[in-house]
Amino acid sequence: MDQVTIGDVAARAGVSKATVSAVIHGHATVRHEVRERVLEAMEALNFPFDQSAHELRLRHLRNPRRMNAIGLVIRKMDNPFFAEVMQGVQSYATDHGYTLLVSSSEGHPHAEQKIVSTYRTHDVDGLILAPIVADAEEHGHLQELIEDGYPVVLLEAVPGVTTNLIRINQEEASAAATRHLIELGHERIVHFAGPVYTTHSQQRIRGFRRALEEAGRPFSDDLIVPIGAHLRDGYERGRRYFRRYPPATRPTGVTCFNDLIAVGLHRALLELGLRVPDDVSIVGYDDIDLMAYLPVPFTTVHSPNRQLGYRAAELLIRRIEAGSRFEPQHLVLEATLIERASTGPPPPRS
Which helix (H) or strand (E) covers residue 191, if one does? Predict the structure, then answer.
């Protein structure tokens, strides 16, 4: 007879192999009823391990393991947005006796899955996650965490995944940035859009479109310019985009996915002989500290990133300490437009 494997136990118990591994090692992050189901499957299949299922159950009940550590999984290590989120998480975690561990998926789904699995199997008590949402098929690892009762807080919604969520009202913030340019008199406005691996990109596009339509302006897909999320993206793609247009048809207002795009675009425009805001007005997004100290201080959307991190850590630690009695919560934070010198009226028609 073939030797019984972890996969056999997982199939019988209706859980993942990672969950079986967590039970074998006595991790306290598995829900009680799930743990019991795995132990019963082990007994039924005569799964070989060092201690009997009964002894393993007693060990867990008498000596539950907790590291007092939480994990933060971000998408890009070099993005100042995540640095500010991390500061907020660190502040709350430290004040409440928890160690913070930080890793970055760098936008790769398989890296995210590996990080999540590693944290879980090494007794990290819970996770705050900025998820990659480009491919719905890549969300199985999140569903497994939730089904197994592992404490998780998401920083943006994932379709089909219901758990603790704290997010910023991206759509309304983007609409406010667009309305600002409309109110200044701009007629040719475009949006420099972000990457596909975050729902923030689509939410900000929806806000841009809504503001135009509410003002009676026509919307078309060519007003959305795929750019990215980094300084180089704003510079290189922004330069290519604006080189195509003569003054008569050139956009005079740009809302950007984030501040890094805005700064990169500013440099590109300077090299093309265009002035900000005399020729082109730019609105950033995030209000990272740099934006107020540039030679042209930038109008931008102030995103409460540190508060986002702080509240996420608060929510996660409450969930950890309450156990399965904690009902999932959905919190929404509002962003605000900060008007500075990078926006002004459009140039006079020639």
Answer: strand 189-193
Strands 330-333 and 164-168: parallel
Q: What is the helix (H) or strand (E) element at residue 204, kind and residue range?
A: helix 199-214
pLDDT tens for residues 259-304?
999 999 999 999 999 999 999 999 999 999 999 999 999 999 999 9
Structural domains in the chain, sorted by start:
6-62 (1.10.260), 69-167+305-333 (3.40.50.2300), 170-303 (3.40.50.2300)
pLDDT band at residue 26 using 50, 70 and 90 as cut-offs: low
pLDDT tens digits along 29-84 = 677 778 888 888 888 888 876 554 445 444 444 445 567 999 999 999 999 999 99
Q: H helices within 73-169, ranges in order? A: 80-95, 109-121, 140-147
- Pairing state of beta strands 224-226 and 253-256? unpaired
The CA distance from 75 to 305, in Å, is 14
Dihedral sign from CA coordinates of 206, 161, 140, 123:
positive
End-to-end CA distance of the chain: 86
* Torsion sign (Cα): 191, 111, 70, 145: positive
User: Which helix (DSSP H) or strand (DSSP E) does residue 237 occupy?
Assistant: helix 231-243
- Closest listed residue to residue 208, CA positions, set 222, 198, 223, 196: 223
At 154-180, the pLDDT tens digits run: 999 998 888 999 999 999 999 999 999
pLDDT tens for 100-133 read: 999 999 999 999 999 999 998 888 999 999 999 8
CB 188 within 8 A of CB 195: no
Under 8 Å CB-to-CB from 131, ≥6 apart: which residues?
112, 139, 142, 154, 155, 156, 158
